[in-house]
Amino acid sequence: MSSTAGQVISCKAAVAWEAGKPLVIEEVEVAPPQAMEVRLKILFTSLYHTDVYFWEAKGQTPMFPRIFGHEAGGIVESVGEGVTDLEPGDHVLPVFTGECKECRHCKSEESNMCDLLRINTDRGVMLNDGKSRFSVRGQPIYHFVGTSTFSEYTVVHAGCVAKINPAAPLDIVCVLSCGISTGLGATLNVAKPEKGSSVAIFGLGAVGLAAAEGARIAGASRIIGVDLNSNRFEEAKKFGVTEFVNPKDYDKPVQEVIAEMTDGGVDRSVECTGSINAMISAFECVHDGWGVAVLVGVPNKDDSFKTHPINFLNEKTLKGTFFGNYKPRSDLPSVVEKYMNKELELEKFITHEVPFSEINKAFEYMLSGAGLRCLIRMDA
């Protein structure tokens, strides 16, 4: 066990005291892990849209003060009672959703939606005792999706930690904790395009480009990128995208444009925007008889998906996915190995880098739409 096992650790964390206000670097106290928990030393983290959405607290009940962050890589510092498959020194990726390995979902080969550890954005405390492991000058600080990686040390449920190859560079593979795996898995695990097939990707942000990367790995011959921002098209070529469509350039529905380009429709499509119109277009643009559309983006709660039932009768298939259908503990280590084997390219997703002391710059980059992922170095 480490020399700090069982003790409270004082470290720096970026605390969100109010919605939409810059994070403040504070000295926080991090309690030891309780049963089935692990305490991690975070070495690298990055900012994701989900962090920004809940930091802005638009249309939701605010929960502050809070420590955000859920894409990260680190090392196990200590483990709580009952943890048997992790030990101090292990290299790990904390994940916003978990795998208890005991519930019906975890035991199913078709699902990754753990009953116990499924993402919960409203729970700012640990499952074990309903309390936070963070405090500042005696005041409890809320957790975020069970990870809170904008802290030099954090406490996470053991079921939300993926042990990975210690040779893998954590400053690169840390981006696999959320969005990149979501897009990649949506293509490889759910859409499953065959070699030589055609794939349309709706939305060319980081998740959409990860979906395109999956299509490239699968050997798709045509990867059509669809986005309202034509400035994204050039960068998308790095991820295997071969053709580009901006719906604003046409006076007809984009699904009709794609159908004309592909002699009736693409073999597969992956939607990564959250726009209900993009979702409908992604479904309607696939070929009848065998076309499969996969929805990744999260729509507004009041949105309705409207399409004619004949699309289903014509054997078009519509699917959805959560975290790319990856089980965090069982599957993420193999995704890391795809990178180690040079099958998966990750460096191109990291477009900016800042030291932890300048974490608010990462928010500025994302809010301005600059780049894909901003790496945050905790030791800089």
Describe this structure in words.
This protein has eleven helices and 17 strands. The protein has helices at 49-56, 104-107, 170-173, 179-191, 206-218, 233-236, 254-261, 276-284, 310-313, 328-340, 359-368; strands at residues 9-15, 24-30, 37-46, 71-79, 91-94, 134-136, 139-141, 153-157, 161-163, 198-202, 222-226, 243-245, 268-271, 292-295, 317-320, 350-355, 373-377. Strand 13, helix 8 (276-284) and strand 14 form a beta-alpha-beta unit. Helix 4 (179-191) runs parallel beside helix 5. It starts with 8 loop residues before the first strand and ends with a strand. Strands 3, 4, 5, 8, 9, 16 and 17 form a seven-stranded mixed β-sheet that branches. The chain has 380 residues and is of the alpha/beta class. The model has no long low-confidence stretch (mean pLDDT 97). The protein is globular and about 65 Å long. This is alcohol dehydrogenase. InterPro entries: ADH-like_C, ADH-like_N, ADH_Zn_CS, GroES-like_sf, NAD(P)-bd_dom_sf.
